[in-house]
Amino acid sequence: MNEFKPVLALVIPCYNEELCIAATAGRLLEVLQSLIDKNKISEKSYLYFVDDGSFDNTWSLITELHKANSQVKGTKFIKNFGNQKALIAGYESVRDIGCDCAVSIDADLQQDENAIETFVDKFLEGFDIVSGIRNSRDTDTFFKKISAILFYKLMYMLGAKIPMNHSDYRLVSRRALCIMELYPEKYLFLRGFFNDVGLKTAYVNFDVKPRMAGESKFNFVKLMGLALNGITSFSVVPLRIVSILGFIMAVVSFLIGAETLFEKIFFHNTPNGWATNILLLCFFGGIQICCLGVIGEYVGQVYREVKARPRYIKDTELK
Ligand code: UDP
Ligand code: MG
């Protein structure tokens, strides 16, 4: 039997989930209790709801649950900030309240809550991050399936190697939460961050169920926003492509210019004014694209600096 019983916090972002909250809280409290009974986690473990600015009864239900059972905690946003911000707030809050590890899970319990036990087992084996990988995308709409595949392929090509069918269902250790504090960027893309941070990571497959009640809170605009944020916050490759393209275009322009000049001088077969036009066009076009590339490189540098990420994170040290 394990001596160390970690305090586990379950982080649940919710936006207009009045139809799910009570059942979800009940089920997750059962999961916590069974892990407590198995001596795997501390009895101080708790649920932490983040109400992402709901305008239905979500928050009053959470308040009632809290009054009945202090294991249910939570916070409410002043308005809707989106699922990623709700998750970040949840992670930061449970780190401050106190926990040894945290699992984030959706309020509609689409992610199989029975996997939490496997997550905890992996944590006890010494993994800092346990990432949930979806077994299938059967519950997704056709559009969501296609966009997800395209997104992961694109991210892979751009250098952010996030495993296919990754999700925000994961366990993270206190250590990972403390490192997250060193990344002050406002638009932190969690899947990229936890995958990239360098901590010992395990992957656990889980089944996806249909939504318990209510409708998906993700629409096209929100999904595209998430995907764009993922790409721009974890890759400077698109900017680099602009610089390289700029350089290639500039060289091609100058070559065309040189060829026109060559024809003008040696063959005299160009109409009057043609060479001047082409030369000016190529010269200014080439200069402009080149300058854009240079600016792109500086923008890339500014982008990396403003994110103010840590230069390095030490794993261990002998003194
Ligand atoms: N969610 C949120 N803020 C939002 C949109 C969604 O906190 O602006 C929550 C939502 O309540 C749920 C989770 O994020 O707990 C995942 O959302 P949903 O189930 O609607 O997404 P889907 O499963 O369809 O991808
Ligand atoms: Mg869902």
Gist of the model:
The protein is of the alpha/beta class and 319 residues long.
Structural notes for this entry:
- The protein has two domains: 8-216 and 311-318, Alpha-Beta Complex (Spore Coat Polysaccharide Biosynthesis Protein SpsA, Chain A), CATH 3.90.550; 237-307.
- It has ten helices and seven strands.
- The chain has helices at 21-37, 58-68, 83-97, 115-125, 142-157, 174-180, 190-196, 220-234, 237-266, 274-306, and strands spanning 8-14, 46-51, 72-76, 101-104, 129-134, 166-173, 201-206.
- It has a seven-stranded mixed beta sheet, sandwiched between helices.
- Magnesium ion binds next to loops.
Name its key features.
319 residues, Spore Coat Polysaccharide Biosynthesis Protein SpsA, Chain A, alpha/beta, binds magnesium ion, binds uridine-5'-diphosphate, 51% helix
Secondary structure layout:
Blueprint: E1 8-14, H1 21-37, E2 46-51, H2 58-68, E3 72-76, H3 83-97, E4 101-104, H4 115-125, E5 129-134, H5 142-157, E6 166-173, H6 174-180, H7 190-196, E7 201-206, H8 220-234, H9 237-266, H10 274-306
Parallel strand pairs: 1-2, 1-4, 2-3, 5-7
Antiparallel strand pairs: 4-6, 5-6
The protein binds uridine-5'-diphosphate (UDP) and magnesium ion.
Uridine-5'-diphosphate binds at residues 13-15, 17, 52, 80, 82-83, 86, 106-108, 110, 216-218.
